[in-house]
C-alpha cells in the first residue's frame, strides 16, 4: 500500500511538470522561428509598430487542388509599458482552394496593428481575411532598414515554406484559443485577458522569446 501511495504521489507531481515542458517546447520553437526571420524577412520597424504577434511553428499546409492547414502556436501583445506579455497558446485551422499539390511544414508569423483583436479572441473564432484584413508583409533583408511603416492592414503575414509551396495563403483560416495548452502552463483559472495583462511567469523559455522580439529593435 505504501509503495502504491508513493507511486501515485509521484505521478501527481510529474503530470503537470510534463505538461509544462511540452508547452515550453512550443515557446522554444516560436523563438527559433523569430530568430530565423530576424534581419532576413521581417523589418524591425514593423515589429516595433505592431501591437500583437502570432507565431505558428511548422504549420501543416497541404492538399491536392483543395488544400487545408492546421497549426498550433502562440500569441503575445504589447502591454502599456511597451513590454511583451506572456504568451497565449492558439490554433489556426482552415482551407484554401487553388492549384496546389503537396504537404509541407510552414513557419507562420502574423503581426497585428491592434492588440484588441487578440484580447478578444477568447470570445469566439476569428477568420483571417474576413473578420480581420490580412496583407502580405513587406520584406526587408536588413533589420536596420529606415523605411517608416504605417500599418494600413489589420494583420501582416509572413511565411517560410520548407516544401513544395512558395508561400502560404491564410485568408479564410480561423484563429482560436488552445485551451488545453494554456491550462497546462498557467492552470485552469487563467484567461486570455489575465495572461495578456497580468501574468508574469518565471520561465527561461518566455524570457528567451521576449529577447528574440526585442532583438528586432
From TrEMBL:
<dbReference type="GO" id="GO:0035091">
    <property type="term" value="F:phosphatidylinositol binding"/>
</dbReference>
<feature type="domain" description="Ysc84 actin-binding">
    <location>
        <begin position="93"/>
        <end position="215"/>
    </location>
</feature>
<dbReference type="Pfam" id="PF04366">
    <property type="entry name" value="Ysc84"/>
</dbReference>
<dbReference type="InterPro" id="IPR051702">
    <property type="entry name" value="SH3_domain_YSC84-like"/>
</dbReference>
<dbReference type="InterPro" id="IPR007461">
    <property type="entry name" value="Ysc84_actin-binding"/>
</dbReference>
<feature type="signal peptide">
    <location>
        <begin position="1"/>
        <end position="19"/>
    </location>
</feature>
<keyword id="KW-0732">Signal</keyword>
<protein>
    <submittedName>
        <fullName>Lipid-binding SYLF domain-containing protein</fullName>
    </submittedName>
</protein>
Amino acid at each position: 500500500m505504501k509503495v502504491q501511495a508513493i507511486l501515485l504521489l509521484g505521478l501527481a507531481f510529474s503530470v503537470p511538470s510534463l505538461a509544462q515542458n511540452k508547452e515550453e517546447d512550443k515557446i522554444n520553437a516560436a523563438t527559433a522561428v523569430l530568430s530565423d526571420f530576424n534581419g532576413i524577412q521581417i523589418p524591425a520597424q514593423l515589429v516595433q509598430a505592431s501591437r500583437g504577434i502570432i507565431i505558428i511553428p511548422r504549420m501543416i499546409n497541404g492538399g491536392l487542388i483543395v488544400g487545408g492547414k492546421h497549426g498550433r502556436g502562440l500569441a503575445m501583445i504589447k502591454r502599456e509599458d511597451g513590454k511583451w506579455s506572456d504568451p497565449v497558446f492558439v490554433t489556426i485551422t482552415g482551407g484554401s482552394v487553388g492549384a496546389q499539390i503537396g504537404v509541407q511544414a510552414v513557419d507562420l508569423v502574423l503581426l497585428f496593428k491592434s492588440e484588441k483583436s487578440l484580447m478578444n479572441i477568447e470570445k469566439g473564432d476569428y477568420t483571417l481575411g474576413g473578420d480581420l484584413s490580412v496583407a502580405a508583409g513587406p520584406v526587408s533583408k536588413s533589420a536596420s532598414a529606415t523605411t517608416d511603416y504605417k500599418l494600413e492592414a489589420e494583420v501582416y503575414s509572413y511565411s517560410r515554406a520548407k516544401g513544395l509551396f512558395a508561400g502560404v495563403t491564410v485568408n479564410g483560416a480561423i484563429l482560436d484559443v488552445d485551451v488545453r495548452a494554456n491550462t497546462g502552463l498557467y492552470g485552469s483559472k487563467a484567461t486570455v485577458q489575465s495572461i495578456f495583462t497580468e501574468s508574469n511567469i518565471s520561465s527561461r523559455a518566455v524570457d528567451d522569446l521576449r529577447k528574440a522580439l526585442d532583438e528586432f529593435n
